[in-house]
Amino acid sequence: MLEPIMYVGGVYKHNHLVELVEDLGGYILQKNVMQTEVVLLMLVPINDIAIVEAKAKELLGKLTRAPLTGSEIATVAPTLAYHHLPHLDCDVAEFLRKQGAKTNMVGLARGVGKRICQLTAYERDLINEHDVAVFILGNYEHCIIEKSKRLYEGIEIPVVVTGAPELRTEDVPNATAYVGNFGRILHHMRHSEELRTLDKLAEVIGKVLDDVRKEIAKDPPSIAPPRIKKEIEEQVQEIIDSLHPLPITLQLNGARVKLPYEEFHEMLENIRFVEGVTMKEVAQVLPSKMRNFILIKPRPKSETGFVI
């Protein structure tokens, strides 16, 4: 099992840590260099974490667990009109990105009103392509509860709800978790108590993602999503030339490849691994609801009978 880890340290000799993680069978998911500092998001075999910690200490860097690493999260607002405060949506999305997640903002077409709110089929399918959905709601307890009865219909992934009142998760129908002290904030969240609220949200989402990882581990995928990313980068030149941010976006149980489905799905299906199998034997290559990108979902071990 691979643990999501974040390393923050100096640029000097950070390549030693990169080589160590790869030698141990781990993966470097993202590297950000900012002048003299480097931030690495990586997946490390759980039994080898002590070795990586020793190397990080030698390099005078800081190693922390980052449970949001390698996940894709949908932050959902009833609308993107000012009435529903995109300020807060942007703050939540940006904070989760800093914790290692890839976030996409979704503004609903018919999310207004506790009696008439609903999801379209397209919105439902798009949200279900993510690992977790964070619904950012308002100030009124009754409105949050009533919307929760119908707004999450057909959502198959965990749903985390935010709002102003302090409620128990059991009080919010169909929600996996609820985080209070948000609501309709008329400014960017920058005060200390607001940052603590964002920390709490990230902690709750991290626990939800850990539960998803445990479920996936019961019937592991035939190929790990980071391995999919690595092979595509090595065998598909067009992904290297792509100008999209994160042209291959990792998910807990899959990957989103930002190439046109009609033009590239056969190329991805025929990628061959050194073990002698092709991509279509170990994963499904599907059209995504997002801009006609490609969604790759590994087949479980129970279906293929092996793991590479």
Poorly predicted parts: none
**Could you give a short account of the major beta sheet?**
5 strands, parallel
What's the number of extended β-strand segments? 13
Oligomer: single chain
N-to-C span = 14 Å
- Measured on Cα atoms, how large is the radius of gyration? 20 Å
- Number of H/I helices: 11
Strands of the largest sheet, in order across it?
6-5-7-8-9
Give the helix proportion (percent range): 25-40%
Q: According to CATH, what is the class of the largest domain?
A: Alpha Beta
CATH fold annotation of the largest domain: Rossmann fold
Can you tell me the CATH superfamily of the largest domain? Cobalamin-binding domain
The SSE order reads: EHEEHEEHEHEHEEHHHEEHHEEH
Total domain units: 3
Gross morphology: globular
CATH architecture of the largest domain: 3-Layer(aba) Sandwich
Task: Describe the overall structure.
It contains 11 helices and 13 strands. It is globular, with a radius of gyration of 20 Å. The longest helix is centred in the middle third of the chain and has 27 residues, at 192-218. With 308 residues, it is an alpha/beta fold. The strands form 3 sheets. The chain has a 5-stranded parallel beta sheet, sandwiched between helices. A 4-stranded antiparallel beta sheet has the order 2-3-1-4, with helices on one face. α5 links the parallel β7 (132-136) and β8 (159-162). It has helices at residues 14-23, 49-58, 86-98, 121-128, 141-148, 192-218, 225-235, 237-240, 261-269, 279-282, 301-304, and strands at residues 2-10, 27-34, 37-45, 62-65, 72-77, 102-107, 132-136, 159-162, 177-179, 248-251, 254-257, 283-287, 294-298.
